[in-house]
Structures are given as structure tokens and as C-alpha cells.
Amino acid sequence: MSTVIVGAGVTGLTVALQHLRAGKKILILEREPVVGGLCRSYQYGPFSFDVGPHRLYAADPGIDSFFLSILGENQVETPRISQVNLNGTFHNWPLGISSLSKLSPLMLLGCLSDLLTSGKNYGEIATLKDFVLSRYGKTIYKIFWEDYTEKFLGIPCNKVAAEWGQLSVNRSVINEEKRPSGLMDLLRQLLARETSPLLFRYPTGGMGDFPNAMAAMVRELGGEIRLNQNITGIKQSDGNITGIQTQDEHHPVDKLVWTGSLIEVSSLLDQPAPELEYLDIALLNLEIEGELKGDWQWVYFPDKRHVFSRISRPSAFHPNMTPKGATGLCVEVTLPPESPYHPHDESLQARVYDDLVDTRLLKSKDQVVNCHHELVKSAYPIYKKGYRSQVDSAQAALKVVNNLQLAGRMALFEHDNIDEAVKFALDLPVQELPA
Fold first, then answer.
1. What are phi and psi of 260, to 5 degrees?
2. Among 200-204, 344-348, 375-379, 430-434, which stretch is predicted with the lowest mean pLDDT?
3. Which residue among 74, 173, 295, 421 is buried most deeply as judged by most CB within 10 Å?
């Protein structure tokens, strides 16, 4: 009995390992030329870049043990050091007492005023704007959420589902004890004594080492991984998938685990395609002359005047990522459907250079020695208001297919972290789905 897995990201590779260890036959079909999905790394000579900042962290000891079983000694523990740029000033993130003196009196007064109204009889919380105003007030909404969301997603907060708010908090504050549930929590943290930064695991050769090690294990256990595979058709009979067609050949299927797009699998199985959108990202991976000051790993940029939403520095995760005497910067620019830019746009590159100087990350554009453009397609699901009914309807329609299992961010239309993806995959049943 063979199980075909579409997608060689972390979820697909974890599912493959579980099935192989249970004695199942596995074939993974991946559309990209490399494994890893969002966890892959790019190599340009001595410079290495991840797809933005990634880390391996799990409060669950079982998931942490899984990380260690994959990487062994090829990983280090490193503290999280992230920042946010507010009104031209860099603050540690999450905010702490060190930021108190950097915040404007007007902002602090605004937050104190918002305490009197936030969360009181707000009514239905249907949109991101509702979520933020009810929990954190209009001051926080204006200085961070409003501009950042519109820049990142390309749509205003009143057209984004409220769920995006809590997911964004969970992703940006991975320590559950420090996640502010409201404005009072946020102000309390601002006044609290700062504690030691959270430690997470990082592969010594870049985040791509993690899926690469998983792929090596899959092959050692007898699994097969085929890259550069585009799915062109899925054959069905009596409510079961019997085969899957790529541009190369037809593969018989006893069980299909799909980690690709929910839209694509719905269309391939002749079901109504949901009206959902995924967000593409342009990465400008820059080789910088000299070493930049500070020890930050990544910075959020909510100001709409700057085209990028986040910048990460690979060498701050591990020194192996960048040659001595130089700096790598991974600049992330989201490409919503209405974006005026494309990944290789020279005007985008020029805008990034100007904004790096404007934010004082660089003294001069001449510090950039080389720029590598990468496109990451469907990096994030876009949680537009009303998305949940579209997802539920599409998933319900696919339940008529007996031997199909949806898994992963794109198929489930979820915004998850690596540990959540691994846990979901480990919890999937290994036995064959009922015919």
C-alpha cells in the first residue's frame, strides 16, 4: 500500500517519517527544486539566508525532542533578540522597561486614556480593527496595527478577520507568559523588569538544514522524494483517489496526503474552489560590506513609508551564515494582489536601498555589495473577513473523498509555527483511510 504526499515542507516530511517508521511505502512529490518550503535556505557563495527569521522552539518537550532527533549536535541554542521600529526609534520586542524612555509622552498618555475605554461594551468582534481597538485601544492601533496590516496584507484592518489579531500576537510573542491579552497587560510588561531572553534552537548551517536532514532520513528509510513535480490531475473512482498525474508520469495512490493549496486540490477534485488568497513575498537578500552594529536578529517595520515589513540578519542566528567582516540582510516585502512591485523590479530594489538609509540601518547605499532576489509564493494565507466559511465549505466538500488527508498551512489555510506544523503531522493517523 503506497501513500503519496504532495509537498516536501516540514509537515509533509514529518508525515513521511511517521509513515515510513510504521512500515508504509512513501512517495513525496514537491513542485520546487528543493525541499523545505518556508524553511529552506538560500546559498550565495559564503552567504546563507533563510526565508526570513525562523527558529525551532517548542514548549512541548516531545516536539523539542523531535527537533533534536533530526539535528542531533548540528544545532545551537541562541537567545531571541528582536526589535520593532516605532516612529523612527528601535525598541526591543516584546516591549520592556528599556523602551519606556524612548516612547513619546503623547503615546503613553494615549495608552493611559485608552485604558478607560478598551474592552468595554465594544460589541461584535468581527474584524482585526475590532479586535485591536477592543483589546489595546486606538493608540496602539494607530501606531502599529493599522499601517503594518495594510502594508503587509494590502487590505485595511476592517476587511481582515479578527482571528488574524490573535495569530499575529502568538507569532510575534512566542513565550505564552509574555503574550499581552490586553492593554493593561501591555503596559504592565512595559513597566516590568526585563527577564532573560527566550532561548530557541537553530541549525548550525541555516534553517534549511532541518528539512534537508529530514529528507535524508526519509530516503534512508526507503521513501522517495521527487522534486520539480507539478500536479496536473487526480483520478478518482467510487469516492477514492486512485492516481495522481504529474508532468512526468502517473502514480497510483492508496492514500493521498495533500499539503499544497486548498484552492488547487479543490479544483483538481472537481469541487468548487474557495475564494481564498495567499500572500507572496519578495526577498531581497543583501550582501553588506562591514559588520552592522547591534546584536538584533530581526526587526518589524510598521511604518507605511518603508516598503519592507521585516528585516532579519542571518549572522545573528549563527556566525556561519555570513563571512567575517560582512553582514547579510534578508529584506521581506510582501506582494499582495494589488502590489505595484514584482520580485525582480529594479524600482523595488532602489526603494529598499533608500528605506534602509532612511531607517539608519545603513549609512549609505554604497554599503550594499550584492542583491539577490527571491520569490516565495503563497507564503501566508490572507485572513479576509469571511474566510472561515470559505475554508469550512471547501473542506466539507472534500470529505466525499475517502482516502484524502489535508495537512499543512496551505491545505488547512492556517497560519502556524514550525512546532505546530510538526505536532499536527505527528498526530495524524498512520493507518490507511477507510475505503
1. -85, -165
2. 430-434
3. 421
